Amino acid sequence: MKLLVRALLLVLAGVLFFGSIAVVATWAPDQPVDQLKPRWARPPSRFLEVNGLNVHLRDEGPHNDPVPIVLLHGTSASLHTWEGWTQALRDKRRVIRFDLPGFGLTGPNPENDYSTEAYVQFVRAVMDKLGVQRFVLAGNSLGGQIAWSAAAAMPDRVDRLILVDASGYPPESMTTPQSIPLGFRIAATPGLRLLSRYTLPRGVVESTLRSVYGDPSKVTPELVDLYSDMTLRRGNRKALSRRIEQGYTGNVGLLKQIQAPTLVLWGGKDRLMPLEFGQRFVRDIAGARLVVFEDLGHVPHEEDPSRTVDEVRRFLAS
Fold first, then answer.
1. What is the CATH architecture assignment of 33-317?
2. Can you say whether the dihedral through the CA atoms of 303, 86, 108, 160 is positive or negative?
3. Which residue among 283, 295, 311, 315 sits deepest, i.e. has the most Cβ atoms within 10 Å of its Cβ?
4. CA-CA distance, 273 to 116, in Å (whole number)?
């Protein structure tokens, strides 16, 4: 019996020892935004004061465009996810993108409110601040949920709607098994959640990115750098936990009220928001059209910007 107790104590000591080493090796405290700006907020980035938030924003292309294109990123992403689309569109169209509260360099919402309604009001406030009355609105994942909710709330302002692997339907309603990225699972787990606010193993970031790409080999070290730094922005990890607590189920009854012409883009290899959700958006939004990219994942606009933006060009020209 004594030998068994001694063996268990040795195992426990070993776990604590190697666990402590792992924590020390991955220790990553929050970074002040000024420390991240030199790399990630180079021109044409600027910061706009909106409702007490210093919003990281890029506003490119001809400012006489009567209906600019506004791009909304998803959970734990940033305005950088739209770089490919912006480069393709800004020669002829005004393209506006910004880091949503809780993410990127904008940082956490002072009210700690990451509900869809709060985000819709935030989008409205940014557009008011920029003096933009009518716009095309596109969004990926959480950004897509914000986009379709805004289209329902502001029919006089949203001229066209583009949904890219958007969220909003109750997860329990899906028939396809859902694969939650590792980073999101950690942020949703009480014990690990606290630890994750002080550590950031690079492998977790890379694993999360690889899980949302149709072709994981496209995940580069530079992309891992970007997502790691955006996670480390002071307050973002705590905000992510709160965002996940508030869920990803929207008021889908609003979808039938949407009047804007709608394009739905979907990655056929999306394991987070399966294709059946894209098909439901097309059924619920009058006149919506679905385009599926069979080889792409949850962020098709980032994984293959050239092919996906071609569909956007056709939609805007129609």
1. 3-Layer(aba) Sandwich (3.40)
2. negative
3. 315
4. 17
